[in-house]
Design brief:
The protein is of the alpha+beta class. Helix content is 39%, strand content 19%. The chain has 7 helices and 8 strands; from the N terminus they run ββββααααβααβββα. It has helices at 30-45, 56-66, 70-76, 94-101, 116-126, 129-134, 160-164, and strands at 8-11, 14-17, 19-22, 25-28, 111-115, 139-143, 151-153, 156-158. It has a two-stranded antiparallel ribbon with strand order 1-2. Helix 2 runs antiparallel to helix 3. The mean pLDDT is 88.
């Protein structure tokens, strides 16, 4: 992707036009975004990766959120200035979708996907600095919140994710 053409993503020698540049604004095309996300998903997760039609509504909401389409977000009841919480059963693709979406707008609000368990392990070794580091102004996606163990540093128990959030 070039900064002067943020609506065109180069991937594996192919150019994916996910929207149309009009002046300084991009009008994104959800169907073209789906094509790109499926292609990128196959590269990241293997040839069997597929975006199911049942997931299009959720993906539409997430795409609107990630590209900061305020009108689209309003239709889905989302505020692009606030965080998101995705819930669902184990193995339904929450982490895969979040890992994929950041490639749509890599220069706008870049975020890291971090397993919550890793933060607890960091707290257990480093202490409260871990909480300070992740309570900063950067953007993070905390994965598997709620299944991490309780943190413990020098005999003090701590709900690490509760403190960070």
């Amino acid at each position: 992707m070039k900064l002067d053409h943020p609506h065109i993503i180069d991937e594996g020698g192919l150019a994916f036009h996910i929207g149309e540049l009009k002046g300084s604004r991009i009008t994104y095309n959800f169907q073209k975004m789906l094509v790109y996300l499926e292609a990128k998903g196959k590269l990241m997760f293997g040839k069997k990766f597929k975006i199911h039609e049942d997931d299009h509504d959720v993906l539409s909401a997430l795409c609107n959120y990630i590209v900061r389409d305020y009108q689209g977000c309003k239709k889905h009841g989302l505020d692009p200035n606030k965080g998101l919480m995705l819930t669902g059963p184990v193995g339904c693709g929450k982490t895969s979708l979040i890992r994929l979406l950041r490639f749509l707008v890599p220069y706008q609000r870049p975020y890291s996907v971090i397993p919550s368990r890793n933060l607890v392990f960091g707290f257990n070794h480093i202490g409260f600095k871990t909480i300070e580091d992740y309570g900063s102004s950067d953007y993070f996606c905390f994965d598997d919140i709620g299944v991490e163990p309780m943190g413990r540093y020098f005999g003090k128990d701590c709900n690490v994710m509760g403190e960070i959030l």
